[in-house]
């Protein structure tokens, strides 16, 4: 039968609905919805071109080429019109422009934060990829007549936002894609709806192919079970993924240190993949430990923290940055000059100490954000930069913080909002820990001291499945009492907001390690140099105090440096806990480590030290599961052989003869296709005389037999032939046949050397062959598919 043009048009429309509706899920990967128009236009043009060719009854290959031509023309018209011939025909200038757009898109994908800027490169890449996926789905559904299989292309479309967006796909995009897919299944011609010559329409149906015959429900269920098992194993084997096969926001860590694609989630991957190789270096005249920040994360929706995009508000140039710090409650300011060499560090942000006043020596166009003073340029603009930052900060003391009790004024509501769904454990913990604190500063100190009693671990959150910053993650973190800087900073920031203290999270680098060298900085002289590597990637919370501004704290144990104002009165100032290595603090006074007081409501995990890393309980469990899996794999062939033997002997003469053939296969005398029962038993007679070599004798022989292998073979052959070829009504002596098989089995074992006998018992060849049978049957199906593909190609080339 032939599908009508109206049905084909309905299928094309349903596919367009599924693809364009599914692309709505990219909202949040790119900012705004301006990119949706070119996606819809190019997708519709591609499918329309293929649909017109299909309505003209062209061959499937020219139909696909027509769709590709529509894709090319629409892409040129929308993105490279000025460089194209007549506005839609690609030429050499259009190819050059397309290459530049691809480079821009690649840099954005690697180094931008989500949601990324919808520049020409990213929109062109997204549009072209989605339209090509639509063409692939159209070819599968209509040319190959496999509409159900076209869902793979739609699944690929939804995978990208599921990986990049913290909130995953979203209900709207999934519903639109699913609805369009169901409409496609209803409208597309069914499988096999192909033209059949008139003379064959009423003839007998062809026999099913081997591939169709092999698609039994049991084998389909086994295939599905294998796929699920492989997915579960692969999820644990692929490096760089933390939860499941494609956890939201995860990616491989081979792309270099950066803060793109959600900086907090990337930070976890960077810490776990740190190799100790220097990322950047800096020299400074600061007498206090210096943090280098890249981006500030201030927006929390309950599922994740993310930076607020303010690219439209950035100001230029960098030699006149106005910090707008609140100095009313500060006794003075502290200035510093820092020379930074980024080397291979790749990010759109320039690392700089807070709060920068001016930046000189940078290459490229960078702007500064008046709200958080972050310095941002084009994607990957930070690579191989050398610049000097002059910064100033108010002198913050315990007294000034204790006096800052006024309500915050003139700051964004985003840093004060407490999202819905805060778990009771988070609220109750914050209230319990700070119940004796009377000022915001005292509450902040209590939260920091409580969290510093936890244990630091980069692996436990990923192994136990609570890596991230969502509400459920914070609740689990407070229960497990172990994590790394993301969990500590997010927990303190959220609990601070529940107490009425505005908060945000700074992402960047901890102070690093002194190299012992000095660097000549113009206007500042020779300054000591420090190296920062991937292990120094860090996140820390900042709390807002009216009259002082944003004040950093350090709740993460064994990382960073506790500020002077955040230590207890008896702990001393500038105590460094950066990796617990003496001398990591920048100030000369702190060359010897000073213990930091960390009072907690309950004792810390581990041995009580700040850097104690508890052994995860998952490791022994995984080891036991791995050992059990190995034991099961080793015992599987022998178990299958025992089960098959019992079932065959219980089935009667047919099963008993199958058991005889399995015995021969195990011991090197497998039946041949040309063997008759008599010729096969004649070959097994070589075991005669070895029936008593192994263990006690079996039950007595059948009447008239002498107990030898030849007599047992003769009995079994006689009963099998009479059962299969004798007169109707003959009752076979199954007991005699079973005794004969048992004797033959013992003789076969006796014919083997002890080592071979043990190998056959552990891995019986007959059961191994039975287990491998489904896979060996795939070879003829694959060969048949290859033959059909070659015939189709020859047919296409002849027509061409």
The share of residues in helices is 40-55%
Query: How many strands, which pairing sense, and closed or not: the largest β-sheet?
Result: 6 strands, antiparallel
Overall pLDDT level: 75
DSSP summary, beta strand count: 16
User: Could you name the CATH topology of the largest domain?
Assistant: C8orf32 fold
Strand pairing plus helix content: what structural class?
alpha+beta
CATH class of the largest domain, anyone? Alpha Beta
Fraction in beta strands? 5-15%
Low-confidence stretches: 192-216, 238-261, 570-619, 691-705
What is the CA-atom radius of gyration, in angstroms? Answer: 37 Å
Q: Roughly how many Å apart are the termini?
A: 25 Å
Tally the structural domains.
3
Tell me which CATH architecture of the largest domain applies here. Answer: Roll
What is the approximate shape? extended
Number of helices: 24
Strand order of the largest sheet: 6-9-5-1-14-13
Structure, explained:
The protein has 800 residues and is of the alpha+beta class. The protein folds into three domains: 5-193, no CATH class; 263-614, Roll (C8orf32 fold), CATH 3.10.620.30; 652-761, no CATH class. It is 45% helix and 11% strand. It is built from 24 helices and 16 strands. The chain has helices at residues 5-23, 36-55, 60-79, 92-111, 120-143, 151-164, 171-187, 210-214, 217-237, 263-272, 398-403, 424-433, 440-451, 460-464, 471-480, 485-498, 618-650, 653-666, 677-684, 709-725, 734-750, 754-762, 765-776, 778-799; strands spanning 278-284, 292-297, 299-300, 305-306, 333-341, 356-360, 367-368, 375-376, 386-394, 455-456, 482-483, 503-509, 513-521, 525-533, 537-545, 549-552. The strands form five sheets. The chain has a six-stranded antiparallel beta sheet with strand order 6-9-5-1-14-13, with no helix packed on it. A four-stranded antiparallel beta sheet has the order 2-12-15-16. A hairpin with a 3-residue loop joins strand 13 (513-521) and strand 14 (525-533). Helix 3 (60-79) packs antiparallel against helix 5 (120-143), helix 13 packs antiparallel against helix 16 and helix 18 packs parallel to helix 21 (734-750). The longest helix has 33 residues, at 618-650. It is extended, with a radius of gyration of 37 Å. Residues 192-216, 238-261, 570-619 and 691-705 have low confidence and may be disordered.
């Amino acid at each position: 039968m032939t599908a009508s043009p109206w049905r084909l048009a309905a299928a094309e429309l349903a596919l367009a609905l599924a693809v364009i509706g599914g692309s709505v899920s990219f909202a949040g990967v790119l900012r705004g919805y301006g990119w949706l128009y070119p996606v819809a236009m190019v997708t519709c043009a591609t499918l329309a071109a293929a649909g017109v060719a299909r309505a003209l009854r062209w061959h499937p290959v020219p139909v696909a080429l027509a769709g590709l031509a529509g894709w090319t023309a629409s892409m040129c018209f929308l993105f490279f019109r000025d460089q194209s011939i007549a506005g839609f025909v690609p030429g050499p200038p259009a190819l050059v422009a397309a290459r530049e757009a691809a480079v821009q898109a690649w840099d954005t994908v690697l180094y931008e934060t989500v949601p990324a800027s919808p520049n020409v490169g990213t929109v062109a890449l997204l549009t072209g990829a989605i339209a090509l996926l639509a063409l692939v789905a159209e070819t599968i559904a209509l040319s190959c007549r496999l509409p159900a299989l076209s869902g793979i292309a739609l699944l690929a479309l939804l995978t990208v936002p599921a990986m990049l967006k913290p909130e995953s796909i979203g209900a709207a995009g999934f519903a639109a894609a699913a609805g369009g897919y169901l409409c496609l299944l209803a409208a597309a011609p069914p499988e096999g709806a192909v033209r059949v010559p008139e003379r064959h329409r009423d003839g007998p149906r062809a026999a099913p192919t081997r591939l169709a015959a092999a698609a039994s429900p049991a084998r389909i269920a086994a295939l599905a079970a294998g796929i699920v098992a492989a997915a579960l194993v692969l999820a644990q084997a692929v490096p760089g993924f933390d939860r499941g096969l494609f956890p939201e926001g995860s990616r491989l860590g081979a792309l270099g240190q950066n803060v793109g694609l959600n900086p907090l989630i990337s930070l976890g991957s960077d810490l776990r993949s740190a190799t100790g190789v220097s990322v950047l270096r800096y020299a400074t005249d600061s007498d206090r430990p210096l943090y280098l920040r890249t981006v500030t994360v201030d927006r929390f929706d309950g599922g994740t923290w993310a930076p607020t995009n303010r690219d439209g508000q950035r100001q230029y140039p960098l030699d006149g940055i106005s910090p707008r710090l609140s100095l009313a409650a500060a006794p003075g300011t502290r200035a510093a000059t820092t020379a930074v060499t980024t080397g291979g560090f790749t990010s759109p942000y320039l690392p700089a100490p807070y709060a920068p006043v001016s930046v000189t020596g940078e290459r490229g166009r960078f702007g500064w954000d008046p709200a958080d003073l972050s310095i941002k340029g084009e994607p990957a603009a930070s690579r191989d930069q050398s610049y000097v930052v002059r910064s100033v900060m108010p002198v913050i003391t315990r007294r000034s913080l204790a006096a800052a009790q006024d309500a915050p004024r003139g700051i964004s509501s985003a840093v004060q909002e407490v999202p819905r769904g805060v778990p009771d454990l988070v609220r109750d913990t914050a209230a319990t820990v700070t119940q004796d604190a009377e000022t915001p500063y005292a509450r902040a100190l209590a939260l920091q001291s409580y969290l510093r009693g936890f244990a630091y671990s980069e692996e436990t959150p990923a192994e136990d499945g609570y890596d991230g910053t969502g509400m459920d993650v914070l609740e689990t973190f407070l229960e497990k009492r172990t994590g790394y800087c993301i969990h500590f900073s997010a927990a303190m920031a959220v609990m601070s907001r529940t107490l009425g203290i505005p908060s945000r999270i700074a992402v960047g680098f901890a102070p690093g390690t002194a190299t012992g060298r000095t660097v000549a900085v113009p206007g500042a002289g020779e300054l000591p140099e420090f190296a920062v590597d991937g292990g120094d990637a860090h996140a820390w919370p900042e709390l807002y105090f009216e009259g002082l501004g944003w004040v950093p704290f350090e709740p993460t144990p064994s990382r960073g440096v506790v500020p002077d104002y955040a230590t207890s009165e008896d702990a001393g100032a500038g105590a460094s806990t950066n990796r617990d290595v003496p001398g990591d603090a920048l100030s000369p006074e702190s060359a010897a480590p000073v213990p930091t007081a960390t009072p907690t409501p309950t004792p810390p995990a581990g041995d009580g030290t700040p850097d104690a890393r508890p052994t995860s309980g998952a490791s022994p469990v995984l080891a036991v599961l791995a050992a059990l899996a190995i034991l099961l794999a080793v015992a599987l062939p022998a178990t299958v052989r025992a089960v098959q033997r019992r079932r065959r002997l219980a089935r009667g003469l047919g099963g008993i003869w199958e058991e005889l053939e399995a015995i021969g296969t195990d011991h090197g005398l497998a039946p041949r296709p040309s063997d008759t029962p008599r010729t096969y038993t004649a070959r097994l007679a070589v075991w005669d005389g070895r029936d008593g070599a192994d263990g006690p004798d079996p039950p007595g022989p059948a009447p008239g037999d002498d107990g030898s292998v030849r007599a047992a073979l003769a009995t079994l052959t006689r009963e099998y032939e009479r059962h299969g070829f004798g007169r109707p009504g003959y009752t076979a002596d199954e007991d005699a046949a079973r005794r004969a098989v048992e004797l033959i089995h013992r003789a076969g074992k006796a014919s083997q050397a002890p080592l071979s006998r043990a190998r056959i018992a552990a891995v019986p060849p007959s059961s191994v062959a039975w287990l491998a049978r489904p896979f060996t049957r795939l070879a003829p199906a694959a060969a048949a598919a290859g033959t059909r593909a070659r015939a189709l190609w020859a047919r296409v080339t002849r027509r061409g």
